[in-house]
Amino acid sequence: MGIFKKKQAAESVDFTALPEHIAIILDGNGRWAKRRGMPRTAGHAVGSENFRKIATYCNDIGIKYLTVYAFSTENWKRPDDEVSTIMSLLEKYIIEAIDEVRKKNLRLCFWGSRAGLSEHIKKLMDESEKESRDMTGMQVNVCLNYGSRNEIKEAVSKIARDVSADKIKPEEISEDMIDSYLYSAGTPAPDLLIRPGGEKRLSNFLLWQLAYSEMVFTDKLWPEFDERELDRAIIEFQKRNRRYGGI
């Protein structure tokens, strides 16, 4: 046991070999609150602040892309008060982020369908994306009203329309072309997916983009997931041998 502890203590992040792109499923806010006798909405408030903290840390250590699963197309099924709280927190985050992107040279992008979102939130999303378009620091992609199957369906529909309009030929369709029709167009695929919360599934998140990503699952709930937990996930990533189907 002593040897194991010594080995664990000696492990540290190699900051010269960081993943370029980290994706995180923000899971466990409601359960974190419930375990403390608090309403689920309180967990989302704490989770929102934790996202800010982890995003800052990623930027500080040199991660180039951070993509987070903030609200899925399936999350509309949750109780109205919980959905309302999440939307209010997102609105607050976007307003504050508009100022943050200027200070920290961040680029902010939103991936997902805008159908069903309030006009105010959509306006804030447009404003923040426009404000940060030319920033050269870390790109933060917030997946809002996002579902990967819907993303792929929309991409296929757009390709079909372009084929019908003779803009492209069916034989020209390639993986790179499909990439260019996705919300994530122009962004490299995640190197590392992290899912806190104890679940071991993708939950309709980046199904196309995660084809060769390394995955780390942890029982820590999102509000408990701190910088050291992120370090542990990166260390685990750095131990992997990414063969991409080769030997």
What would your notes on this structure say?
The model is unreliable at 1-10 (pLDDT under 50). Helix 2 (29-35) crosses helix 3 (40-61), helix 3 packs parallel to helix 4 and helix 4 (80-104) packs parallel to helix 5 (119-132). It contains eight helices and six strands. Helix 5 links the parallel strand 3 and strand 4. The longest helix is centred in the middle third of the chain and has 25 residues, at 80-104. With 247 residues, the protein is an alpha/beta fold.
Distance between the termini: 34 Å
The helix fraction, in percent, is 40-55%
Profile the largest sheet. Answer: 6 strands, parallel
Q: Order of strands across the biggest sheet?
A: 3-4-2-1-5-6
| Total beta strand runs | 6
* Proportion of strand residues: 5-15%
Radius of gyration: 19 Å
Q: What value does the average pLDDT take?
A: 92
List unreliable stretches of 5+ residues.
1-10
- Helix tally equals 8
Tell me the overall shape: globular
Class of secondary structure makeup: alpha/beta
H-E string:
HEHHEHEHEHHEEH
SSE diagram, text form:
Elements: H1 2-10, E1 21-25, H2 29-35, H3 40-61, E2 65-72, H4 80-104, E3 107-111, H5 119-132, E4 139-146, H6 148-164, H7 175-180, E5 192-195, E6 214-217, H8 227-239
Parallel strand pairs: 1-2, 1-5, 2-4, 3-4, 5-6
